[in-house]
């Protein structure tokens, strides 16, 4: 019986993403990805930097919430293939530790508007901005 529950749980949680058919770096501003279901997403550098899957994304903890801010004008310098499942993006703020899988690109593309809206709402909630800090 436990084996049946495990199998059912894995079926429920397994998400089948479409396969990537095209990856194009539009440096420094965006990445364009296309999938075999016809989906085509243009993902801006700021969005990718904010939602980098890396653990050390240069975040600020505000009231216990991790927030990345001031990245409106961040650029992408390069994309380095990682196996056959993703790429490592190098941003011009020298962040380069996150590996973006093809499935993660699909997730980011299909949820772009909701995730960007949530990001902007979080910034406003904490009095932060998408714009970089002004140097004195």
UniProtKB/TrEMBL annotation:
Question: What Gene3D superfamilies does UniProt report for this protein, alphabetically?
Answer: 3.30.2020.30
InterPro entries for this protein = GBBH-like_N, GBBH-like_N_sf
- Which Pfam family is one of this chain's hits? GBBH-like_N
Sorted keywords for this record are:
Iron, Metal-binding
Superkingdom assignment: Eukaryota
Residue span(s) of domain Gamma-butyrobetaine hydroxylase-like N-terminal: 28-106
Q: What is this protein called?
A: Uncharacterized protein isoform X1
């Amino acid at each position: 019986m436990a084996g049946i529950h495990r199998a059912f749980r894995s079926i429920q949680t397994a998400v089948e993403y479409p396969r990537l058919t095209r990856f194009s770096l539009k440096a420094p501003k965006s990445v364009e990805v296309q999938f075999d279901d016809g989906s085509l997403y243009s993902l801006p550098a700021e969005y990718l930097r904010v939602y980098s899957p890396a653990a050390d994304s240069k975040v600020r903890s505000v009231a216990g919430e991790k927030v990345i801010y001031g990245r409106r004008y961040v650029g992408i310098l390069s994309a380095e293939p990682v196996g056959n499942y993703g790429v490592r993006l190098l941003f011009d703020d020298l962040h380069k530790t996150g590996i973006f899988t093809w499935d993660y690109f699909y997730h980011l593309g299909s949820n772009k508007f909701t995730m960007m809206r949530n990001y902007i709402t979080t910034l406003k909630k904490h009095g932060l901005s998408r714009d970089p800090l002004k140097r004195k």
